Amino acid sequence: MNLLIGEIPDCWNHWENLAYLNLGNNNLTGKIPPTLGYTNPCMLNLRNNSMFGELTSTLRNSWSLVMLDLSENHFSGSVPAWIGDKLSNLVVLSLRSNNFDGHIPHKICDLQFLQNLDLAHNNISGVIPKCFSNLSEMATKDKINNELSTPYFIDYPFYLKALLVLKGREDEYGSILGLVTSLDLSANRLRGEFPKEIGSLVGLLSLNFSRNLLTGIIPDSIGNMELMESLDLSMNRLNGEIQMFQ
User: Which residues form a coiled coil (predicted)?
Assistant: First the structure.
C-alpha cells in the first residue's frame, strides 16, 4: 500500500517484458490506459483505487494474465466477452465492488483454468449461465499444486498471492492459492432459477449467490459438492423444501 494519486500515465508501450504489476490500495483515478494492455503481464492488480470507465479493449492482448484483480473501483459497462475469449490462462478474476452491468457473458465459461471468479457487488442482471458447468478447474476435486507460479524470463517463477473473500471475510492466499476455488456472484440483480448444472462444480470450496433475485428451489445436485466449506444463498426468493443431501 502506498499513497499514489492521479491517473496512471499512458506510456506502457516500452514495457514489453513487464510480468507483474501491482498498483492496488492507492488513490489512483482515471481510466485504464490503453498502452497497459500491450504489456502482457502475468498478474495485474489495480484493486482498491478510484478508477472508472469501461475496460480498455487493449487488455485483450494480455493473453498471459493468470490473475486480474480490478475490484473495489468504479469501473462500469458490461463485463467484456473477450475476457473469456482472449484471456484463456486466467486462474483468478475479480471484478468485485464496481459498477458493471449487463449480463454475464457466456464466454466466461471458456476459462478452463479459472479457479476463483468474483463478480460480487455490481449491477449485473440476467440469469446465471448454465455453462458454468464447463469451468473444469472448479469441477476438479484433486488439485496438483498448492501455489500458483508463472514463468518470468523462462527460468524465474513468480509465486502469486491473491486477496479473496471466502466465508464472509477477506484473506490473502499465497502458499495454498492453487488449492482454493470460489464462485461469488452475490449482491447483484441476477434472476431466474438456481441452475442445477452448478452441482457439477464439485471442486468448489465457497459458493455465494446471496442478495440476488433468484427464484425456485435449491436443486438437489448441490449435494454433489462435497468439498464445500461455505454456501450462502441468503436474501433471494428461493422456495420449496430443503433437500436431504446424500
Answer: none
User: Which residues lie below 8 Å from residue 246, measured CB to CB, with a gap of 6+?
Assistant: 223
Q: What is the DSSP string of the chain?
A: ----EEEPPS-GGG-TT--EEE--SSEEESPPPGGGGGS--SEEE--SS--EEPPPGGGGG-TT-SEEE--SSEEEEEPPTHHHHH-TT-SEEE--SSEEESPPPGGGGG-TT--EEE--SS--EEE--GGGGG-TTTT-S----SS-EEEETTTEEEEP-EEEEETTEEEEE-TTGGG--EEE--SSEEEEE--GGGGG-TT-SEEE--SSEEEEPPPGGGGG-TT-SEEE--SSEE-SPPP---
Residues 6+ apart with CB under 8 A from 5: 26, 27, 28, 29
Residue type, 34: P
Does residue 76 contact residue 54 with C-beta atoms inside 8 Å?
A: yes
Taking residues 41-56, report their average pLDDT: 95
Going by pLDDT thresholds of 50, 70 and 90, the confidence category of residue 143 is confident
Q: Which is it for strands 149-152 and 206-208: parallel, antiparallel or unpaired?
A: unpaired
Cα-based distances in Å from 23 to 49, 62, 72, 148, 157: 9, 17, 13, 20, 20
